[in-house]
Amino acid sequence: MGDNGTVYHERQRKQLCALHVLNNLFQEKDAFTQKFLDDICTSLTPSRFMNPHRNMLGLGNYDVNVLTAALQTKDLCLIWFDRRKKVEKVDFSKVKGVILNVPSDYKLGFVKIPFDFKHWYVIREVQGAFYNLDSKLDKPIKLGERQAAVDFLNERLKDEKTQLLIVVEPSVETSGSWYMEDVNS
After folding, report:
1. 20 has catalytic annotation
2. Contact (Cβ atoms closer than 8 angstroms) between residue 177 and residue 90
3. CA distances for 12 relative to 23, 101, 125, 135, 136, angstroms
4. Distance CA 136, CA 10 (A)
5. Is 17 a catalytic residue?
6. How many domains does the chain have?
7. Residues near 6 by beta carbon (within 8 Å), at least 6 away in sequence
8. What does residue 65 show for φ and ψ, rounded to 5 degrees?
9. Catalytic residue among 17, 41, 53, 77
10. What digits encode the pLDDT tens for the residues 82-124?
11. Range of the domain at 148
12. Active-site residue, selected from the candidate residues 9, 20, 53, 119
């Protein structure tokens, strides 16, 4: 959590949304650094010229493998959410956060670049309320209680290019207890 009980929120710079996701998830400025994520990229693919896990210009644009490896250093797991399941059945009391990967336009001035860019951001609970901690926002947006978060996520999943990833502890991943199979909805 940020200073004075406020919600910590990093703003977008370069293509470092994955870094911002991690720091916003942990509510800590330097939970991770760009150098740390770059080192993960190098360990995943020790190539000096081109690394498939990040932008070759060093601007970020990290992939899911980097997020997964970074979370593992904090003893957390990343679970891909199968959109055939129901968000209503996610047991948010066992979830550290929800990471979204969404289509994103990239523009130079008013000109849209014709590439398929993706953007990472996190939704998490802080002090009993869920927040959208998208680094492209000027400040975090309070979604409210659990149902508001479920509605927000369901709305985002209407776009078939959007991916949802659940952050949990290893025991929760192993047991599958993050998802309540028996809940009717």
Report:
1. no
2. no
3. 12, 15, 20, 5, 5
4. 9
5. yes
6. 1
7. none
8. -65, -35
9. 17
10. 999 999 999 999 999 999 988 775 555 555 554 556 788 899 9
11. 3-175
12. 119
